[in-house]
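[step 3/7] fold_predict: job queued, chain A
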Amino acid sequence: MPDFHAGYQSALGARRFGRVNWLGLQTLAGREITRFLVVWTQTLLAPLVTAALFLMIFNLAIGPQRGDVMGVPFLHFLAPGIMMMTVIQNAFANASSSIVISKVQGNIVDTLMPPLSGLEILLGYLAGAVVRGVLVACGIALGLAIFLQIIPQHPLVALGFVVLGGVLLGGLGVVAGVFAEKFDQMAAITNFIVTPLAFLSGTFYSVEALPPFLRLLSQLNPVFYLIDGLRYGMIGTSDGSPLTGLLICAAASFGVCLLAWAMLRSGYRLKA
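[step 4/7] structure written:
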């Protein structure tokens, strides 16, 4: 007689929905997007206000006395850097905070128990990070068009670098969220890694103005290429080749996401 009990037990662990759990992936991505949309005043409106304050303060402090940078007005040069800095900070915060809060509250099991692979979990978190980053970028772009008359010169290039920024920092947010056990560790990663990467990457200056050693350090920073590429997409001016920047950012995003996938797949600091 066939052993129906053994066959039933083996079926319990089988993936009966194909190679990709589309329903589970869609559910996780939807949860991550809904999570920040529910508190949109904190996650979408607040970054727009912060970016506007940055531009206003720089304009009042040094804008009138500052000459053109790379052939464009200083505020026009500054705006894409502020935009990308805001995008990557929000993408990182979205992925990292979701994981850390779940770990601290003890409900990370709700993400780990469903039949989702490490790659599907990673894609779900990245979806939230990228969508939040794109929405913030669109809000800032609308403000730049209204108040500074900055219309994207190469909109597809600009969108591509915004998405890459969301993927790179979203992946880094997953890595940081998995590694951190409590909020002070997360704050340390943000303050000592993410913030320096954002501020020391040509946001407020052209790297051509730096001494050779600092220029080399800036060129080793993948965020520099994100900002430089977005600057090209927005105002048609950049320090380097947008294609080179695109390849470097894609390689950096792949490397970070590969690390995040390995951590999620192994259950590092997630499973007992």
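[step 5/7] annotate
The chain has a mean pLDDT of 91.
The radius of gyration is 21 Å.
exit 0
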